[in-house]
Amino acid sequence: MELEFLYEKTLQGAVNAKKRKQEQYRKIVAHLYYHGAASIAEIVKSSKISQPLVASLVDDLLGFGVVLESGIGESVGGRRPNLFCLNPEYQYVVGIDITLHSLSLALFDMNNQLVYREEYKEFDLENTSNCTQIIVEKVKIALETRNIKPEKVLAAGFSIPGLVDAEHGLSHTHLSFTELGLGAYLGSQFGFPVLLDNDARTMALGEKAFGKAKDKKNVLCLNLSNGIGLGMILNGELYSGKNGFAGEFGHILIDPDGKLCSCGKIGCLETLTSGKILVQKIKDAIDEGQASFLASYKKEGKRIDLRAVVAAILAGDQFAIDQLNQMCEYLGKGLVTLLHLLNPEMIIIGGKLAHAGKFIINPVTMWMNKYAMDRISSEMELVSSDLLDDAALMGTMASVMKKVLSNRLE
Predict the structure, then answer these.
(1) Are 92-204+392-404 and 214-386 in the same CATH fold?
(2) Tens digits of per-residue pLDDT, 48-64?
(3) Is the pLDDT of residue 175 over 60?
């Protein structure tokens, strides 16, 4: 399913002429999207299209409704220029972020503003058509709630854990039941294109476009939730590897004599440090009588999950803090390997464990300082995400807009 703005579907003419006109329109839309309201002169400077042609193209875009007049700008000598901006309600982007135990949905307008957000915490990711149908129904509810018809949706960005081939819209770990491929299957259900990618890479796009990785060229974005994922911004671009599988940081070998991992190998980092392991260790200890704020959860029949553990850590539960500290040594050692190989300027910790803030940043920093070469580590920042649970959702928006405004039309 082709990714097009509404107005592009109505363009007439020979194929090559149509593509050239699309690219010119998109250069203008891209400037307004990335830089905000602008004058004709400013668009000419960035697009390298002649002033008469830019003026004509802007008139077309005004007629299509994708561009609006936005007042008068400051004079730089002579008459004050008219300003133009994108119409935020021209089209929308659907954001879908799936984890093992939650489903988050968002609708964004053309100004990157959230016009709808909903999180379903009782959702469990299963490799069934029924699970996929739940996602489809929730998206339809979101669109109906905001009275947005499917044709007004530019595309959906879809973030999911596991091995994902974004180029071909294939999920190899979860929701892999359909021969069409997950992206094409969802597109056929929604009636608009779906761009699929791994959750950690989608988070990295969110951080690059809207978070702490903005204006930085070499950043590692860690998704610490039930598992461990890694999104890499290298030389200013998202790095995906040959088949789109780059970033499986949680499956590097740490303990050759260790436990069996969910991937089928022995001693992966995820068997020693992950949200899943942290929760299980705490639950086992509580079953054996360990004192903890979380012991009351067991008595009251409440679910001890990663959210509850992080809440206990933030409330000062010493046992939960100690368990997290123990895991941070393995995480720190793993990150030192990445630090020495890739020499990033920043490492961002995101995902559910990022909510622990200083309780994870401080111990990981301590272990990295112990094992890393000072010359490399001294110029690297380790920080927690400001976007937190919105990082992947913001990344779905960034993914769609980056794709449609790339100006590379097939």
Answers:
(1) yes
(2) 899 999 999 999 999 99
(3) yes
Token pair belonging to 352: 């559910």
Give the integer Cα–Cα distance in Å for 350 and 356: 10
Domain boundaries, the chain: 6-86, 92-204+392-404, 214-386
3-state SS class at 125 = coil
pLDDT band at 244 (very low <50, low <70, confident <90, very high): confident
Following DSSP, what letter does each residue of 141-178 receive, concatenated?
A: HHHHHTT--GGGEEEEEEEESS-EETTTTEESSSS---
State which amino acid sits at residue 97: D
Q: Contact at 8 Å (CB) between 122 and 130?
A: no
Number of Cβ within 10 Å of residue 121's Cβ equals 12
Q: What is the CA radius of gyration of the chain?
A: 24
Reference 356, options 386, 392, 384, 333; nearest CA is 384
Contact at 8 Å (CB) between 294 and 286?
A: yes
3.40.50.720, 3.10.180.10, 3.40.630.10, 3.30.420.40: CATH of 214-386:
3.30.420.40
How far is residue 357 from each of residues 251, 286, 311, 370, measured CA to CA in Å?
24, 24, 11, 20
Backbone region of residue 37 per phi and psi (left: phi > 0; alpha: psi in -120 to 50; beta: other values): beta
CATH of 92-204+392-404, one of 3.40.50.410, 3.30.420.40, 3.40.50.460, 3.40.630.10: 3.30.420.40
* CA–CA separation, 341 and 349 (whole Å): 18
Q: Give the Å distances, CA to CA, from 328 to 256, 323, 333.
A: 19, 9, 8
Percentage with pLDDT > 70 across the chain:
98
What is the spatial distance between Cα 328 and Cα 353, in angstroms, rounded to a whole number?
11
Supply the pLDDT for residue 408: 53
Q: Under a CB-based contact definition with an 8 Å cutoff, are residues 127 and 177 in contact?
A: yes
The dihedrals phi and psi of 381, each to the nearest 5 degrees, come to -100, 135
pLDDT score at 1: 74
The third-level CATH classification (topology) of the domain covering 6-86 is: Arc Repressor Mutant, subunit A (1.10.10)
